[in-house]
Amino acid sequence: MNKYLNIIIISFFSILTYQYNLGFSLYLPIVLFFINYNYKSLILILPISFLSLFFIDSSSWIYLLGLDIFLIIYALFLSKRKNQLIDLIFIFLINMLSLILIDKDINYREIVIYLAFSLLSCLLYMYFIYNVSGVFAKQNSFRNYGFIETIMGLTVILGSSTITINNINISLFVAMFYIMYMSQNRYHILSIFLSIISMILLNMVFKIEASIILPFISAFYIFPGVYGSIILICFCLTGWLINFQYIDSTILLISIGVAILFEILKHSIINMSNSRNEMVEDVYNQAISNVNNEIIGFASFLDLYAKEFSSTKFYNQKISEGITNLTKHYCDNCYMKKECYAKNKNRLYAYLKNMIIYSKRSDYESTNQELIRFFKSCPYSIEMRKSSMILYEKLNITKESSKANTLVAEINGVSNILRQYSVDNSLKNEFEYEIFYEIKKAICDYGLALTYFNPRKILINDFLIEIGIRGVGFNEMKKILEKIGDNYITNKTTVVFNKVERGRTYMNMIPRINYEIDYGYGSIAQSENGVCGDNFLIKELANSKLVAAISDGMGKGYLASEESNTTLKLIDEVTNTSVSTTTSLQILNTFYYIQDYLEKYSTLDFVEIDRNKGEVLFYKMGASTSYIFHKNGSFEKIENENLPFGIEEAIETKNYNICDNDIIIMSSDGVFENMENEEDLQVYIQGIMHMSPQNITYEILKYVRDHQKKADDDMCVITLKVIAVN
Length: 726
Fold this sequence. Notes:
Elements: H1 3-14, H2 27-37, H3 42-56, H4 61-78, H5 84-102, H6 108-135, H7 145-160, E1 164-165, E2 168-169, H8 171-184, H9 188-205, H10 214-220, H11 227-241, H12 249-269, H13 276-308, H14 313-331, H15 337-344, H16 348-357, H17 369-377, H18 381-394, H19 400-426, H20 434-445, E3 450-459, E4 462-470, H21 474-486, E5 493-501, E6 504-511, E7 515-524, E8 534-540, E9 545-553, H22 557-574, H23 581-594, E10 602-610, E11 615-621, E12 626-629, E13 635-638, E14 653-657, E15 663-667, H24 678-686, H25 693-706, E16 715-724
Antiparallel strand pairs: 1-2, 3-4, 4-6, 5-6, 7-16, 8-9, 9-10, 10-11, 11-14, 12-13, 12-15, 15-16
């Protein structure tokens, strides 16, 4: 049942069981069970319990006040220890104390009875804990949250039997409501059990003959949807019309009202709207949708590739020469150079490039607000526009000959890539779809208001389940959802925050993150260039993995930066798909290989960290040496053995295990290989490992800048620190 409604109903009625000289032996284990998993439940339990006593038996409020004081102390201090033995001692002592205080005239026989009640209370609590661990384990027909709700339902029915309105005991209608809920929530066996026990209790103990209707209600509500309520209403109307002698007509009419009330509340108290078959079908449809999304994502990657490689290196070199010509004749001697560079430095290259390419379009700058502002502030905009037209004429370079020569290579290359893509998908192992039904069922059985459940990825080593829950915070639900996921998914799970929207908290269940990664990064261009040719990428994937990459474009300045940035953009795009990293890089390298007529090469230093397994995979294509520094001061060197990206087809990987406090250093060739004494830098890094990754990055760049180097070169550094999750 919905968590908060369940707490309200149980708190209101279960406290009344003390009137049968049971003390708090039924009330206490239930309340303790609620607050043991969330002590904030007391905020709801205490006022509802006092409200119940205020209307029913206000003379006993002093005993409840004493109990609540102990419960508050327990919630604030003892519950944080999660020690079941302490819980049982607490329950036993508080029960004995309450029973003795309530009964002023006590004898040995009654002490034995009180001991039995206190032991019963402890057994109930142990049973609750055992069964809730069944929610945190694979459920079976004898162990799930439904048994807890059955016992709580019996307690509520017993407590409500103390209330009579106009000679009608309301326990009958409370029993109806619980039986309706159990049947509609597909606990059919438990619903029948509850109906039979309730009928016997109400008929034999409280002489409520109308309780014979309860097993019928259990049977009626086995039918799905609204049919159960329709059958019950028809049954009651028939009994009312024929003046059925065993059930009073007033009770029949009230039963109709209970059926209508249940239909109104049903969607808020029953979280499971899907049957097992419907859930499996939903996951299957999602799997088909994922295939379509993968195809669309791969097509987007191809579009990006086509866009980025639509021009040759010779063509780009001419553009770069044209930009250099413009800046040399106009920008270098401009009196607004300093202000312009400060405002437009990151965009100036694109402005000048597009000025040359679109120089013959008179309306070009009018379509771009940034360009309008640039041309208005530039004192040489008219002269630069005229020069751009002249430069454009010089770029009339035909590419027809290269098209014919590369057409066959491109077709063969794309064919190989599609084969690799197909093989990669065929090797993926999916979960049994019923696992997702079981996870969803367990979440609902726990009493959470589940509003969204969507298995987006269903691979054993790459899964993503999106979960939305109403009325609770992320910190409150994280551990609970992880416990549920851990017992259905062998590789364990981690729940990460997604967003909060309209009172609902959305979370993602992904493979267990056993290692967090803290990182820092930085780059410095060589002294005569304003643009660093080395670029980097750091990205957390949805499958508990993190990737980091450094690319060094051939040459210097804008052109080198463009080449390395293009490589990283393609890496970023292809990692959005569920293709394995090895296949992704093989696909990219094949693209570069079949396009070698562009003479467009770049290095790639790529790292993939599996935060679930504690493994790091290195892919190096023409890249600089990387290091893994261990907390004991030792280190491992991962050296490059391959040519630059796109020059050879083979891609080799190296796997390493990582440990807590390991530090991974990635860099371009302007750092370690560029030092006159590389060993000194290694020793220096060993001495600063206690710093944060970002400070380590700054210190490395500063050290290289201030010490003797073989050549002045671009520098880029990424520092990754491994932090084990307890």
